[in-house]
Amino acid sequence: MSYDYDLLTIGAGSGGVRASRMASSYGARVAVVEERYLGGTCVNVGCVPKKLLVYAAQFSQAFSDAHGFGWQGTPAQFDWATLIANKNAEIERLNGVYQRLLTNAGVEIIDGHGELLDAHRVRIGQRVVSADKILIATGGWPVIPDAPGSQHVISSNEAFFLTELPRRVTVVGGGYIGVEFAGIFSGLGAQTTLIYRGPLFMRGFDDDLRTTLAESMRGRGVDLRFNTTVGAIEKRADGLHCTLSDGSKLITDQVLCAIGRRPRIDGLGLEQVGVQTRESGAIIVDDRFRTSVDNIYALGDVTDRVQLTPVALAEGMALASNLFRGTNHGVDYQNIPSAVFSQPNLGTVGLTEQQARERFEKIRVYRSKFRAMKHTLSGRDEQTLLKLVVDDATDRVIGCHMVGDDAGEIIQGLAVAIKCGATKAQFDATVGIHPTTAEEFVTMRTPVAD
Q1: What is the structure's pLDDT at 1?
Q2: 252 and 285 housed in the same domain
Q3: pLDDT reported for residue 33
Q4: Per-residue pLDDT, 44
Q5: Mean pLDDT, to the nearest integer, of 169-193?
Q6: What is the full DSSP assignment across 258-271?
Q7: Is-catalytic flag, 375?
Q8: Cβ-proximal residues to 130 (8 Å cutoff; 6+ apart), any chain
Q9: Neighbours of 101 (CB within 10 A)
Q10: Of the residues 304, 325, 346, the one at which a domain ends
Q11: Any idea what the CATH number is for the domain that residue 192 is in?
Q12: SS3 for 247?
């Protein structure tokens, strides 16, 4: 049977674009269907604009720290409108880059919403196209629960386009998105409160990192309220009145909900085609990204495996190679490094101490907590934490964690060592770069008491 395309991708995010470009480079006829913006969440309302806002927020602390180094003068004034306008211009530039990447690779871009009609046909508006293979890479979408006053709440999507900086901001949620935005708003001068239902935010990360980050954020002025939820929100003349589960009241100007994301599958027609999903909405795939329908594939956040842009890119590369080069590649999800661009940053790769204790008979833990050299003059009493988790039987380093400036940059390099199975003896034999924070990872010699 003849089809319009060899591969039709629904969703022009990181994974979808990479798979489509590579498939085209292997000689396939490829089209991408996208109803919103090229580049997906990461480029438009995720990694890229968030990092730009984090950079902006870090200047306030830098200005404060500068006094201890002899810098004097009138504090700089921040203008939210300028930041957002410059951020928007950069995102528009990147949208153009993605368009050129696809076009130059020979991939056709189809604007509109794609809906599966059967295993080989997709409807986009009034147009119906066919493809031998279909890839679903539609990503995720923020969740805002239906609760009293939820119409007054924004998600991270809208936070990037606020017309002005709120004077008071309340962030609901204790994952990386909530923590990052709390740091952004606080750093830019807003009175910021973070509310999380559990006893400590950043669930899933090493407990020492979670505790240290909480201490640092409180030290930077963020009001952290744990074991608390928002019951109702009422809009009044003086702001949004939030009723909290502990009986207290909180008045704020903006509530940002960051309690999680769900796979974006609405209107895709998965049910009528027979593509199976989990209760969460995530598309079920095997280790080669195949769904329950033979010629339909899915990858990235819509599968809710590991919600990281580099993971979606790796999946897209592997899938394109499998489909059009005859390979049989999967993606190794072990020891994937990640960073949270909180203030200070959090970086991690490998197992947490808790996970290691569950999987290994005996482990050694090395921990160093100190005030970074910079703050001996800045005067800021903020702690940096570095931590190694080692399998005692093999001496292999199975976890590497950090809270402190540039944690993501430092952990990226160490992730190579962890991936290669480096031992603690090899860490010890490595000469450090002095004076740096990172050298502490190769100078820790005494494990903490078990």
Answers
A1: 74
A2: no
A3: 98
A4: 97
A5: 98
A6: -S-EEE--TTS-HH
A7: no
A8: 3, 4, 5, 120, 121, 122
A9: 16
A10: 325
A11: 3.50.50.60
A12: coil
Residue 73: its pLDDT value, please?
86
Clarify whether residues 134 and 271 are in a common domain.
Answer: yes
Q: How far is CA 351 from CA 37, 110, 170, 223, 398, in A?
A: 36, 42, 32, 29, 6
Give the CATH number for residue 357: 3.30.390.30
* Distance of alpha carbon 128 from the chain centroid: 35
Of 67, 120, 241, 434, which residue is the catalytic one? 434
How many domains does the chain fold into?
Answer: 3
Asked if residue 126 and residue 56 are part of one domain, the reply reads yes
The verdict on 166 and 99 lying in the same domain is: no
DSSP 362-424: -EEEEEEEEE-TTHHHH----EEEEEEEEETTT-BEEEEEEESTTHHHHHHHHHHHHHTT-BH
Q: Which residue has the tokens 């004034």?
A: 77
pLDDT at 280 over 80: yes
Tell whether omega for the bond before 435 is within 30 degrees of 0, i.e. cis.
yes
Same-domain check for residues 131 and 270: yes
Q: Element (H or E) spanning 86, and its range?
A: helix 80-104
Q: Which residue, of 237, 259, 281, is where some domain finishes?
A: 259
How many helices and strands in the chain, by DSSP H and E?
Answer: 13, 22
Q: Quick one: tokens of 74? A: 């009138």
Q: What would the two tokens of residue 307 be?
A: 């919600």
- Extract the tokens encoding 172: 């609901």
Considering only residues 49 and 449, tell me which one the structure prediction assigns the higher pLDDT.
49
**Model pTM?**
0.96
Do the domain assignments include residue 447?
no
Domain annotation covers residue 53: yes
> Are residues 40 and 199 in contact, defined by beta-carbon separation less than 8 angstroms?
no
| 10 residue type, one letter | I
